Amino acid sequence: AFRRREIVGNLGNTVLRHFVLYLDYKRQRIVLEKGEDFSREYPVDRSGLMIILSEKGEAEIYFVSSSTPGEESGFKQGDLIQAVDGKDMRAWGGVLGVRQVLQGIPGTCLTITIVREGKPIDLPLKLRDLHWSY
Fold this sequence. Notes:
mainly beta, 6-stranded antiparallel sheet, 8 strands, 13% helix
C-alpha cells in the first residue's frame, strides 16, 4: 500500500514471506523457492496509512499513500493517533494493534482520533481494498 517511485522494484516481506530465500555467495546469485506458505493469503492494509512508533513512543502517521482512504479522509504525515473508535490506541495493542485494525474487512467504518498541531481531531475512515497501478 505504500507505493513510491523511488522504491519500485524493492522486495520486502509482502513478497518474500511466500518463499525460501537462498543466498549463493560463491556464484553471486539469489535463489527463491516456493515456501510452505506460498499460496497463503496474508492480511493487507486497507487504509493507505503507514504508521510507525515515534521516538516518543506514539503511533505516528509516517506516510499517506495517494488515492487511498487515508488521503481522502485528510490524514497527514506527522499526525499522532490517539484512539480508534473512542478506544485509546494502547488498548488496541499500540502500533501493531492499530495496524491490524486497518487490515479489517473492506467497508468497515472507523473514527480515528489524531492529534495535529496539539489539537485532537476525529477523522472518519472507511477501509477498502487497494489496487495499484504503476
